[in-house]
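Course exercise 7: structure representation. Students receive a sequence record and must write out the corresponding structure in token form. The form below is the worked example handed out in class, using NAD(P)-binding protein (210 residues). Read each field label carefully; the graders check that inputs and outputs are placed in the correct fields and that the protein name is recorded exactly as given.

STUDENT ID: A-19
EXERCISE PROTEIN: NAD(P)-binding protein
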Amino acid sequence: MSSQQLVWLITGTSSGFGRRLVQSALSRGDLVIASARCLKSIQDLAECPSHQGRVRLLELDVSSGSKNIKHQVDIAVGFFGRIDVLVNNAGHAIPNILEEGGSECLRKQFEVNVFGVIDMANAAAPHMRAQGSGTIVNIGSRSAWKTEIAVGPDFRRRCRCLRSCGFAISCCQTPAVCELTSPLVFFFPGDRSVLCLQGSYSRADGNARG
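STUDENT ANSWER:
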């Protein structure tokens, strides 16, 4: 491993932003640990000839609890000896508006989108602290500071759109992720940075994400 190469651990790489981030990091010449709940969904990343030796696959469910996540992150560190960049990209949306989904759907999404972020950061922080450097990137959303309200003459059409995205429930989580990001910088000394990317709607592999 070259001293110029960064080691990335990216969650949720089976599709969308996660898969694109894997490809982007590899195109820089970096090393990537790609994770997903099902290894079959990301097997092609390791089989690509141009990626040979620079990709490791990790079976990881970010809602599996802090103990299991710590174990899996320790395994990830063993692949290349370090983690320079952790990208908390894994996300989960249940197609429901708040009245239909209720607290049960909210809890399921918080397990992945909020508590999963906390557990991943807690698992990676000791390794970054030991190596004296590291970057944690949390994928958030602009809905943390501007939500959608379905009003006006196109009320019904916009309601259908929000329902399909699970938007009413998702809006509750994104401020939590953003507010949790800043304190992470105190986890470890040295050369470190913590970012929360608050993007707008985009399409990656045909899936909308806001």
